[in-house]
Amino acid sequence: MEGGSMDYNVSGLSVIGNHATSSKQILWLVSVFGGVLMCKIAYDVTGVISPLFYKGFNKFNNTQKLEWKNRGFSTFHALFAAVGSLYFLVFSDVFDESNQKELIINRSSAPSDILLGMSIGYFFTDLAMIIWTYPTLGGVEYFFHHGLSLFAIIQSLISGQVQFYILIVLFTEITTPFVNLRWYLDVANKKTSALYMLNGLAMFVGWLVMSIIP
After folding, report:
1. Does the N terminus or the C terminus of the chain have fewer Cβ atoms within 10 A?
2. Cα–chain-centroid distance for residue 204?
3. How confident is the model over 25-63, as pLDDT tens digits?
4. CA 116, CA 109: separation in Å to the nearest integer?
5. Using CA atoms, how far apart are residues 187 and 61, in angstroms rounded to an integer?
6. To which H or E segment does residue 137 belong?
7. Is Iron one of the keywords UniProt gives this record (predicted)?
8. Cα torsion for 121, 127, 129, 133, to the nearest 10°?
9. Cα separation of 63 and 66, whole Å?
């Protein structure tokens, strides 16, 4: 058993070594940094435009403003990841079985690498904020969720494998905007509004569909 385990480890390192060329490593690092920058910009923009659309924003305490803006870049990443994943899974020829002989689980591309890298940047940023402000933005469960997400995406990125399945998981981020909108409406005292009810219905349908697709 030990010999077999060692063979698997060597094989895995060999796959990573063959895939992780210097040019790809630079692309990955730039993508991760781009993801962090994306979060920073979305965070700041959320803080600027929120008072324009909701006057009650300025009455929030610092903790509420922090989470409001944090959910702003969470929503932006969710839309970015979901739309990008949908493109690669449905419209791109990267995972089209009729166009390539290589197994789907072994396929990757520079654009899909960028998407994964930027998602890594998002999870790093969000996890850093959660740790820095703990427990304001979430408890230990978020450590596990983000930690496992980072582990899976990083492994897929540096090996160039199973990106197809990682993208399917990232597509499920499409439900995140509904979750965040529910929180926004809650803190804005809009729980009795029609929008709150419709959003709840959309969130339920979204989760139902996402549980069926895989």
Report:
1. N
2. 20
3. 999 999 999 999 999 999 999 999 999 999 999 999 999
4. 11
5. 11
6. none
7. no
8. 180
9. 5
Report the length, in residues, of the chain. 214
By CB atoms closer than 10 A (0-12, 13-18, 19+), residue 105 is middle
The string over 27-61, giving b where at least 16 C-beta atoms fall within 10 Å of a residue's C-beta and e elsewhere, is: bbeebbeebbebbeebbeebeeebeeebeebeebe
For 183, half-sphere exposure in the C-beta direction (CA atoms, 13 angstrom radius) is: 15
Q: Which two tokens stand for residue 13?
A: 């390192």
Q: Under a CB-based contact definition with an 8 Å cutoff, are residues 153 and 119 in contact?
A: yes
CB atoms within 10 A of CB 152: 15
Q: How far is CA 28 from the centre of its chain?
A: 16
Picking from 68, 62, 77, the residue whose alpha carbon sits closest to that of residue 48 is 68
- How do residues 120-149 score in pLDDT, each as one tens digit? 999 999 999 999 999 999 999 999 999 999
Strand ranges in 17-133 using DSSP code E only, listed in sequence order = none
| List of residues 6+ apart from 155 with CB closer than 8 A | none
| Tokens read off for 138 | 């979430």
How wide is the angle at C-alpha 61 spanned by C-alphas 60 and 63, nearest 5°? 115
